[in-house]
Amino acid sequence: MLELDMAQRRLLTANAHHLNPIVMIGKDGLTAGVISELDRGLTKHELIKVKVLDDDRAHREALMEQICQSLHAAPVKLIGKILIIYRPKPEETEDAPVAKPAKPKGRSKKPTPGRRRPA
User: What angle do CA 35, 14, 48 make, to 5 degrees?
Assistant: First the structure.
């Protein structure tokens, strides 16, 4: 499990303030589908919120620990029924292909002919 210091936790909590939960964990608990969706969310966004529909605080803490251990992530904060979880994106390796920037959509701009002066 990844460890964060207090300054990092404070910064990540502030960054997560505007986020909406990407997954809701209900009565079925932590299923394989939920874990794969959390993994996808962490891979794409690094910082996610998860809503747990359970009233037991100890159970929510256990869920957060289980999620972080299985996904090699760091628990940022538990606020009520919301879990904030962070996992940095993996570093790019030299062997990995480098993505080219996307071409802008729309019309291509061709040079327009200049104005001719009368002779």
Answer: 10
Residue type for position 102: A
Whole-angstrom CA distances from 32 to 21, 29, 67, 76, 77 are 18, 10, 11, 22, 23
As to burial, measured by CB atoms within 10 angstroms (0-12 exposed, 13-18 middle, 19+ buried), residue 86 is buried
CA angle 106, 111, 116 (to 5 degrees): 140
pLDDT in tens, 35-52: 999 999 999 999 999 999
- CATH superfamily of the domain spanning 6-86: YhbY-like (3.30.110.60)
- Classify residue 100 by its DSSP letter: P
pTM score: 0.73
